[in-house]
């Protein structure tokens, strides 16, 4: 008789480590949430006048005078823009604004980088003192200079011409000079020294080496100068006497006071005035942000 061996097998222990259950995700408020909410509220407050302007431009005269006012046009009157262009001499005012804006922008783009280069990349006796005097001129209010400027331009027989508005832009602006100087100070001096070793003179160093690197800062100057010239009111009001030479900023106000113009047409014309500035900013937006950031961090 055979005896069957009993084979006893010991049970294997499960040594694999089990993962602990993950805790329930907690909702955390981002640290930047208050800042973002504040920026959204500020942006909404800034956009509110533009929205109301465009909203009024699309209403007819009856809906515009209704009380309480409507938040949006029930029947958009797109022909208000056509009427605004034809009812007032919009083409004449627009041409004058374009001439003044282009002249001031070109003058600012040429003069300010060149002046800032002399204050940042070239060492000469009294440089910092002269730069301090230029910066101090920022604190001079324009009304203090009105009488002196008018006397000078009257002797030059420039009154009632575009020259008193365009020519000063070719002599620099203290704020633009400061902005360009700060950007130039952030560029390594070795770049200029290497170009001089290669035989370039100072103007060639500025034009072919430094200026191409300063495109963001130049774009900021162009945007600021164009916006300032496009909406300038006091200077054209002082030196321009012929109504046919008024820019849009003065022409609309003068025409509203001397003629019976509907407010919805004025809002339509004002919307058309704002659109070129918005388009300019959208085109140069990338350079604008780079220029402002670099100018605030370097130097």
Would you identify the CATH H-level superfamily of the largest domain?
MetI-like
Mean pLDDT: 84
| Strand and helix order | HHHHHHHHHHHHHHH
Q: State the low-pLDDT regions, or none.
A: none
Distance between the termini: 104 Å
Count of DSSP strands: 0
Please describe what this structure looks like:
- The termini are far apart.
- This protein is mainly α.
- 66% of the residues lie in helices and 0% in strands.
- The longest helix has 31 residues.
Q: Which keywords apply here?
A:
299 residues, mainly alpha
Characterize this entry briefly.
The protein has 299 residues and is mainly α. The chain has helices spanning 33-57, 61-64, 79-87, 90-120, 127-136, 142-155, 163-166, 174-185, 189-197, 202-213, 215-230, 234-239, 248-258, 263-283, 285-297. The chain has 15 helices and no strands.
């Amino acid at each position: 008789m055979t005896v069957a061996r009993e084979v006893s097998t010991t049970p294997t222990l499960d040594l694999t480590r089990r993962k602990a259950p993950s805790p329930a995700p907690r909702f955390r408020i981002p640290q930047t949430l208050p800042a973002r909410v504040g920026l959204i509220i500020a942006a909404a407050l800034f956009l509110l006048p533009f929205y109301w302007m465009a909203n009024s431009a699309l209403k007819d005269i009856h809906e515009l005078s209704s009380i309480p006012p409507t938040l949006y046009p029930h029947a958009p009157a797109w022909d208000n823009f056509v009427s605004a262009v034809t009812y007032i001499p919009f083409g004449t005012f627009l041409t004058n604004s374009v001439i003044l804006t282009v002249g001031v922008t070109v003058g600012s783009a040429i003069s300010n980088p060149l002046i800032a280069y002399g204050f940042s990349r070239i060492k000469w006796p009294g440089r910092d003192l002269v730069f301090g005097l230029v910066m101090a001129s920022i604190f001079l209010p324009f009304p203090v200079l009105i009488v002196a400027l008018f006397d000078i331009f009257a002797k030059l027989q420039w009154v009632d011409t575009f020259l008193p508005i365009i020519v000063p832009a070719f002599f620099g602006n203290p704020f633009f000079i400061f902005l360009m100087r700060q950007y130039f100070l952030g560029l390594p001096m070795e770049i200029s020294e290497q170009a001089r070793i290669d035989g370039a003179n100072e103007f060639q160093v500025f034009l072919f080496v430094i200026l191409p690197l300063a495109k963001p800062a130049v774009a900021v100057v162009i945007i600021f100068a164009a916006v300032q010239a496009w909406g300038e009111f006091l200077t054209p009001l002082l030196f321009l006497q012929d109504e046919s030479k008024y820019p849009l900023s003065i022409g609309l106000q003068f025409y509203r006071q001397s003629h019976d113009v509907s407010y919805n047409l004025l809002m339509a014309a004002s919307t058309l005035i704002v659109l070129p500035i918005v388009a300019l900013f959208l085109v140069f937006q990338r350079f604008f942000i780079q220029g402002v950031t670099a100018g605030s961090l370097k130097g």
